[in-house]
C-alpha cells in the first residue's frame, strides 16, 4: 500500500531512474574491453620498468666488479665476493666469471642445463653482451655479460614475475615476450599461456633506456576479469547518473507543482484582480470599453504582471477558475461603478479551452441576471497566437456567445495561426491589431511590417470588420491610424491598465 503510494507520487522520476539505470550498462557496454586494454598497457609499462631497472643495476654491478684489479678466479675469496654480491643485489640471481666458454668460478654452482649450454651472448653497446635462453626448461633466463681483462663476467638477471606485476587477479593469464631490437633472434619470454590470445590483447611498449620492446599477451581469463569489473563500473556509473537525473526531474516537477500550488493558493485567497485599460474612439474621445487584464495582487501589496503566470496558468488550465473569478469581479465592478450604462463593454481574454465547455456561458448568463447587465457590456477576445484544434467546434461555441449578444473579437491579429480562416469561420466582429504592427505606424520608416499593418487594415475593412489598435503610445500614431480608418484605440496614449477604482476616477477626468 505504502509502496504503491510512493510509486504513484514518484512515478516519473522513478521511470527516468529505471530508464537510465537500464540503458546505462548497454551504452557503456564496451567499457570492459577498454578497461582490459588499459590495464594490460599499464601492466606492460610496469613490467618493462622492472626489467629496465634490473638490467641497469646488473650493468652497474658488472662494471664495478670489472674495475676491481686482479679480479680472477685464482684470487682467494672471489667466489665468496660473487656470492655476497648476489645476496645483496636482488636484480641479480647468479654471477659468474667465464673464460673460453667455461665457468671458472661463480656465486653458486651452475644448474646442469645451463652448464651444457653454450652461452650465446651477443654484443651490446660498451663491451656488454646479452643473451636470453628460452628453450625447454630454460625459460626466462636473461644474461648480461661484460668482457674484462680477467675474463667474461656474466650475470643472470632476476626475471620479472608477471603474475606479481599484473593487477588482474588471475593466475597465469598474462604472458610476455621481450625483444631486443637490433639483435636478431633475441626473444625472451615465458610462453606459458594455454590458449592463443586475441590480437587486441597484445600491447607493445618501448623502453626509454634500452632498445627493447615488450609484448604482453592477455588470455581470455584476463579479459574476463575486467569484464566483471567493467560491468560493475558501468552499473555504478549508470546508477549514479540515474539517481542524479531522477533527482533533477523530481526537483523540476516539484517546482512546477509548487507553481501550481501557489497559483491555487492565490485563487483560494482571491488574489487575482482585474485591471482595466480603456478603449477610446479617437474621433469622439468617447470611452467605448475596456480590456480586462489580470493582475496578481500578493498579500504584501506586490503586483505580479500576467507574463509571469499566465503561460503556466494556461498550460495547467488554472486559467479557467482564474477567468471565472475575474468575471465575477468585473460584473460587480460594472454594476458598482455604473459603467454598464451606455454601450460600454468589458473585454475578457479567453483561451481555446474556454470553448470546450459551456461553463463560461452559463456563468455569464447568471451574472447578467444577477446584476441586471446587458450582454453588450461584455465582449470576449480570442488570441490568434494559439491554434484552435477544431475550428468548426470553436465556431459553434462562439456563436452561443454572439447569439446571446456578447461580441467576439480576434486578439493579436496578424501574429498567429488565424489568418483568413479564423475570420471566415468564426463569428467575430473585430480585429485587435497587435502592438507589433501598430509600432510601425509612425511617419518615416516605411518597412515591411508597416506594409503588413496596412494589409491588415485593408483586410479588416474588406471583410467589414471593426478594428481596435493595441499598444498605441503617441498622438502621431493615433493620427496615422485615423487616416487609415482605424478609430478605436487602446494604449498608453490614453490610459494604462488600472485598478477598478483608478479606472473609475480616470473615466471621470477624461
Ligand atoms: P494582450 O491581450 O495582448 O494585452 C495587451 C497587453 O499590452 C497588456 O499587457 C497591456 O498592458 C499592454 N499594453 C497596452 N497598451 C500598451 C502600450 O501602449 N504600450 C505597451 N508597451 N504595452 C501596452 P499585460 O497586461 O501585461 O498583459 C499581457 C498579456 O497577458 C495579455 O496580452 C494577454 O495575452 C495576457 N493576459 C492578461 N490578462 C489575461 C487574462 O485575464 N486571461 C488571459 N487568458 N490572458 C491574459
Ligand atoms: Ca487581449
Ligand atoms: Ca493583444
Short synopsis of the structure:
The chain has 510 residues and is α/β, with parallel strands linked by helices. Helices cover 44% and strands 23% of the residues. The protein contains 16 helices and 19 strands.
Major beta sheet, specifics?
8 strands, mixed, barrel
In terms of per-residue confidence, which ranges show pLDDT below 50 for 5 or more consecutive residues? none
What count of helical segments does DSSP give? 16
Bound molecules: ligand C2E, calcium ion
Radius of gyration: 47 Å
- Estimate the mean pLDDT confidence: 86
What structural class do the secondary elements suggest? Answer: alpha/beta
What best-fitting shape do the alpha-carbon axes yield? rod-shaped
The CATH architecture name of the largest domain reads Alpha-Beta Barrel
Amino acid at each position: 500500500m505504502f509502496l504503491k503510494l510512493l510509486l504513484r507520487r514518484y512515478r516519473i522520476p522513478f521511470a527516468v531512474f529505471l530508464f537510465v539505470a537500464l540503458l546505462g550498462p548497454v551504452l557503456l557496454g564496451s567499457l570492459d574491453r577498454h578497461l582490459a586494454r588499459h590495464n594490460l598497457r599499464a601492466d606492460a609499462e610496469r613490467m618493462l620498468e622492472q626489467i629496465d631497472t634490473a638490467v641497469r643495476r646488473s650493468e652497474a654491478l658488472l662494471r664495478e666488479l670489472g674495475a676491481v684489479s686482479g679480479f680472477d678466479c685464482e684470487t682467494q675469496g672471489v667466489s665468496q665476493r660473487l656470492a655476497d654480491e648476489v645476496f645483496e643485489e636482488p636484480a641479480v640471481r647468479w654471477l659468474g666469471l667465464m673464460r673460453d666458454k667455461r665457468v671458472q668460478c661463480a656465486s653458486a654452482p651452475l644448474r646442469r642445463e645451463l652448464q651444457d649450454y653454450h652461452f650465446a651472448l651477443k654484443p651490446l653497446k660498451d663491451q656488454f653482451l646479452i643473451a636470453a635462453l628460452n628453450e625447454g626448461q630454460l625459460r626466462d633466463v636473461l644474461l648480461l655479460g661484460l668482457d674484462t681483462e680477467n675474463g667474461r663476467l656474466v650475470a643472470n638477471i632476476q626475471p620479472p614475475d608477471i603474475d606479481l606485476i599484473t593487477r588482474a587477479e588471475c593466475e597465469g593469464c598474462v604472458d610476455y615476450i621481450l625483444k631486443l631490437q637490433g639483435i636478431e633472434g633475441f626473444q625472451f619470454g615465458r610462453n606459458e599461456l594455454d590458449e592463443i590470445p586475441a590480437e587486441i590483447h597484445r600491447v607493445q611498449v618501448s623502453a626509454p633506456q634500452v632498445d627493447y620492446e615488450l609484448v604482453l599477451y592477455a588470455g581470455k581469463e584476463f579479459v574476463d576479469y575486467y569484464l566483471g569489473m567493467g560491468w560493475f563500473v558501468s552499473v555504478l556509473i549508470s546508477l549514479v547518473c540515474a539517481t542524479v537525473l531522477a533527482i533533477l526531474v523530481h526537483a523540476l516537477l516539484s517546482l512546477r507543482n509548487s507553481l501550481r500550488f501557489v497559483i491555487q493558493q492565490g485563487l483560494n485567497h482571491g488574489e487575482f484582480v482585474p485591471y482595466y485599460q480603456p478603449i477610446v474612439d479617437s474621433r469622439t474621445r468617447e470611452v467605448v470599453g475596456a480590456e480586462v487584464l489580470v493582475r496578481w495582487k500578493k498579500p504584501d501589496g506586490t503586483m505580479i504582471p500576467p507574463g509571469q503566470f499566465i503561460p503556466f496558468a494556461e498550460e495547467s488550465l488554472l486559467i479557467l477558475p482564474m477567468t471565472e473569478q475575474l468575471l465575477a469581479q468585473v460584473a460587480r465592478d460594472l454594476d458598482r461603478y455604473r459603467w454598464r450604462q451606455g454601450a460600454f463593454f468589458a473585454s475578457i481574454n479567453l483561451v481555446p479551452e474556454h470553448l470546450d465547455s459551456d461553463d463560461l456561458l452559463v456563468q455569464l448568463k447568471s451574472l447578467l441576471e444577477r446584476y441586471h447587465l446587458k450582454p453588450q457590456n461584455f465582449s470576449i477576445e480570442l488570441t490568434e497566437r494559439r491554434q484552435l484544434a477544431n475550428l468548426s467546434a470553436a465556431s459553434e461555441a462562439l456563436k452561443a456567445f454572439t447569439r446571446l449578444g456578447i461580441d467576439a473579437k480576434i486578439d493579436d491579429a496578424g501574429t498567429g495561426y488565424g489568418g483568413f480562416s479564423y475570420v471566415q469561420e468564426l463569428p467575430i466582429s473585430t480585429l485587435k491589431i497587435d502592438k507589433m504592427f501598430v509600432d510601425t505606424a509612425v511617419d518615416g520608416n516605411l518597412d515591411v511590417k508597416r506594409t503588413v499593418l496596412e494589409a491588415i487594415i485593408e483586410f479588416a475593412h474588406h471583410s467589414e470588420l471593426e478594428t481596435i489598435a493595441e499598444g498605441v503610445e503617441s498622438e502621431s500614431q493615433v493620427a496615422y491610424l485615423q487616416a487609415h480608418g482605424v478609430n478605436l484605440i487602446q494604449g498608453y496614449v490614453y490610459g494604462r491598465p488600472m485598478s477598478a477604482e483608478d479606472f473609475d476616477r480616470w473615466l471621470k477626468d477624461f
